[in-house]
Amino acid sequence: MDYTSVNLKEKMSKFSDHWSPKIIAQMNDYHFKLVKFKGDFVWHRHHDTDEVFMVLDGKMSIEFRDGSVELKSGEMFVVPKGMEHKPFAERECKIMLVEPAGTVNTGDAGGGMTVEESTWI
Amino acid sequence: MDYTSVNLKEKMSKFSDHWSPKIIAQMNDYHFKLVKFKGDFVWHRHHDTDEVFMVLDGKMSIEFRDGSVELKSGEMFVVPKGMEHKPFAERECKIMLVEPAGTVNTGDAGGGMTVEESTWI
């Protein structure tokens, strides 16, 4: 049988919109997603799951109510379940997310930046 | 509060042994692990979970009973639950694994390369 690897750069080149995660792989009931950040996202939380951010290119920060973390290429952070956070990137930043399938990008916050269902690329 | 990112290269520099995954992060009941491969691993399978391989530096292959996949830096592959596989790397290759906490590296095969419990670095 012919097995095919998932090339992150090749997948990243398939879209250009910001804040709209695209699914590239599934492991059990978890999705691996690619997303491009630029500017400010909305404050939100995920009540039922942790969320992994891994920066593939660029730099970004995640603000919390009591602090923040800076992430650059080759760095990751796990946002704990239930913790309010707001991603930010001054310039376009390329990120991989790992989270349960069906996790909505804006969590409990809703609003215009919500993507109810991510698509596969 | 002070939040700290996980730097993959910095973590990778903390160990030099082969085939012995080290835990760098936890998301829900899943572990993110770093591991260095060199040479042949053993044929094995994980009966209860998929397993993610992501190459951070170098190249490797995963053999299956009916084919194989080549992975180089920036590429990933999800080995399906229950599928027999054998990782191989001609030269040292640096990999990130994502799998449920407690997953044993040799799966159902056992033997001398088994690491019953990975350590955090």
CATH-derived topology of chain A: Jelly Rolls
Which secondary-structure class do the elements of chain A indicate? mainly beta
Strand content of chain A: over 45%
Total individual domains of chain A: 1
Largest interface: A-B, 38 and 38 residues
Major β-sheet annotation of chain A: 8 strands, mixed
CATH superfamily of chain A: Jelly Rolls
Using the alpha-carbon principal axes, give the shape of chain A: globular
CATH architecture of chain A: Sandwich
Oligomeric state of the chains present here: homodimer
Distance between the termini of chain A: 22 Å
DSSP helix fraction of chain A? under 10%
**Rg on CA atoms of chain A, Å:** 14 Å
Number of helices of chain A: 1
Return the average pLDDT of chain A rounded to an integer: 96
Counting DSSP E segments of at least 2 residues, the number of strands of chain A comes to 9
Low-confidence stretches of chain A: none
Order of helices and strands of chain A: EHEEEEEEEE
CATH class of chain A: Mainly Beta
Please tell me about this protein's structure.
- 2 copies of one chain form a homodimer.
- The model of chain A has no long low-confidence stretch (mean pLDDT about 95).
- The radius of gyration of chain A is 14 Å and the shape is globular.
- Chain A has one domain: Jelly Rolls (Sandwich), CATH 2.60.120.
- In chain A, strands 2, 3, 4, 5, 6, 7, 8 and 9 form an 8-stranded mixed sheet that branches.
- By secondary structure, the first copy, chain A, is mainly β.
- Helices cover about 5% and strands about 50% of the residues of chain A.
- The first copy, chain A, is built from 1 helix and 9 strands, in the order βαββββββββ.
- At the A-B interface, strand 1, strand 2, strand 6, strand 7 and strand 8 of A face strand 1, strand 2, strand 6, strand 7 and strand 8 of B.
